[in-house]
Specification:
The structure holds 2 protein chains of 2 kinds. Chain A is mainly beta. Chain A has no helices and 9 strands. The relative contact order of chain A is 0.23. Chain B has 2 domains: 118 residues, Rossmann fold; 231 residues. Chain B contains 15 helices and 14 strands. In chain B, helix 6 crosses helix 10. The chains are: A mainly beta, B alpha/beta. The interface between A and B is medium-sized, with 29 and 24 residues.
Chain lengths: 94, 395
């Protein structure tokens, strides 16, 4: 089994990683965090260059990529789930 | 090589105005579109001369004339230019006398001028200019490269023809390069205001002072107002359906991918279109997103070198400065190899870290600064590729 990474986490505190391949449900996403390879079992199909959650995210929590807020969860998102416009939106002004 | 400062020297051309060039061009500069063909023929006759297509210089409102003059003077003052031969027609508002004054106020590099109507037409003007140019090229080619510190470099960072790999790897790598260069005392400049909107607050929070912060936000508001005046909006329909299909979910995410090429260091200064910065470190220039135009503006602002990230492929170059083309899309690197200098895809594959790739870019920047030619230079792409901004139509 190859231990090559197949996803990228841009900043160590990001909540989402981006796959550099297309994933089928049940496959393992591998990315580097703090210099070590981390693994997440993907619970859904995820297209190439799309995002998956690397932790459980609660509804209304901010979602980070690039170490910055890119959106706000509009539903609870489980670790390993597909993250896109069905479950996050631009952060609302509070 | 490391990034602590050892061996971070390059061999450049010291100019009398204190700047350091990495190329040594003689510029044949048309003050007005009517002089373009004359300048093209002059530059073709002279090994080591460059020219550009100037669409402007006449039929302009005062605001546009000022833009034309700023860009032309900035290009003449670019450190990669040894000296300039100005060629005017004779009846244009942006005439040789005013351009001479404006250029001389910015730089004391060699400057000659002639006027087509006074010389007795195109052929006579070409004869005079070619002889002036021959002398200037003899002088220019007598210059020797001297050791200069990397802190003398002003790097322009551009992205165009982006795809998902641009925001994921190429721009973050360039952000790391920007940080490394700034930590060594150099300057990194990025621009393209329409593309930072949505993430301008992130950049504004890095502003070194309230004035710089205000200036950045004002540039974004001005850009949005200009568009709304003609019934357009940047925010509606963003991210585009193509962006979403490519994996981008929100405008914030799209713009963050873009501003990532500006790294993480404090934003020292926001400069107007084509203006030379007064500060070192990270500088933002307020330009449109049109690549030919924003590359031209950064070079007019003094950048000696441009690194250009792309994902879909982009062929542009520039007569004044090397344009180093980089991509993290391996298929593109193979498919459009004649247009690309560096392949960043090892970062996406996890074979190399962003930092290691950024160190490779720093090493390549030093080589290109020492004289190694980029593909755009070798093939002669970008021989006349300069574009200027306009505030309204011609008159």
């Amino acid at each position: 089994m190859s231990l090559k990474t197949n996803a990228i986490l841009i900043a160590d505190n990001d909540d989402v990683a981006t796959g550099i391949v297309a994933f089928a449900k049940g496959e393992v996403g591998r990315y580097i965090k703090d210099g070590k390879i981390r693994e997440v079992i993907l619970t859904e199909d995820i297209p190439k260059f799309h995002k998956f959650a690397v932790r459980d995210i609660n509804k209304s929590e901010f979602v980070c990529k690039y170490g910055e807020i890119i959106g706000e969860a509009i539903a609870d998102i489980n670790k390993g789930s597909y993250v896109h416009d069905h479950n996050i939106c631009s952060p609302k002004v509070r | 090589m490391n990034t602590r400062g050892d061996n971070m020297k390059f061999l450049g051309y010291r100019r009398p105005d204190g700047t350091v060039g990495i190329r040594n061009h003689v510029l044949i500069l048309p003050t007005v579109g009517c002089a373009n063909e004359t300048c093209r023929i002059i530059a073709q006759q002279l090994q080591g001369a460059i020219s550009l297509v100037n669409q402007n210089g006449c039929g302009e409102v005062a605001g546009n004339t000022k833009i034309t003059q700023n860009v032309l003077a900035g290009l003449a003052a670019n450190p990669n230019v040894y000296g300039t031969i100005l060629v005017g027609l004779g009846c244009e508002p942006n005439n040789v006398n005013s351009m001479t004054e404006i250029i001389a106020a910015r730089t004391n590099k060699p400057l000659k001028a002639l006027i087509i109507q006074e010389e007795g037409g195109t052929v006579n003007a070409i004869r005079t200019a070619v002889r002036l140019g021959q002398q200037m090229i003899q002088e220019a080619s007598s210059c020797c490269r001297e050791e200069a510190d990397i802190s003398e470099l002003m790097l322009g960072i551009e992205c165009g023809g982006s795809d998902a790999t641009s925001g994921l790897a190429a721009n973050p790598i360039m952000g790391c390069v920007s940080d490394m260069l700034i930590d060594l005392g150099g300057t990194a400049m990025f621009s393209e205001t329409p593309e930072i909107i949505g993430a301008e607050h992130v950049l504004a929070n890095r502003a070194v002072c309230p004035e710089t912060r205000k200036r950045l936000i004002a540039a974004c508001r001005h850009c949005e107002d200009e568009l709304s005046n003609v019934g357009e909006s940047l925010r509606s329909g963003q991210p585009s359906p193509g962006n979403k299909a490519g994996g981008i979910t929100t405008l914030e995410e799209k713009s963050l991918g873009c501003i990532h090429k500006g790294g993480t260091r404090p934003l020292m200064e926001v400069v107007d279109y084509a203006q030379r910065p007064t500060q070192k470190g990270l500088v933002y220039m307020d330009t449109p997103g049109y690549d030919l135009l924003s590359v031209t503006a950064k070079i007019a602002g003094g950048c000696q070198l441009i690194v250009f990230t792309t994902g879909r492929g982009n062929p542009i170059g520039n007569p004044f400065a090397p344009v180093l083309k980089v991509t993290a899309n391996r298929d593109l690197f193979i498919h459009m190899n004649d247009n690309l200098d560096m392949d960043f895809s090892a970062v996406l594959d996890g074979e190399k870290t962003i930092k290691h790739m950024a160190q490779d870019v720093m090493a390549e920047i030093l080589k290109v600064s020492n004289g190694k030619m980029t593909k755009t230079e070798i093939y002669g792409f970008g021989f006349t590729e300069t574009v200027m901004s306009r505030m309204c139509n011609y008159i």
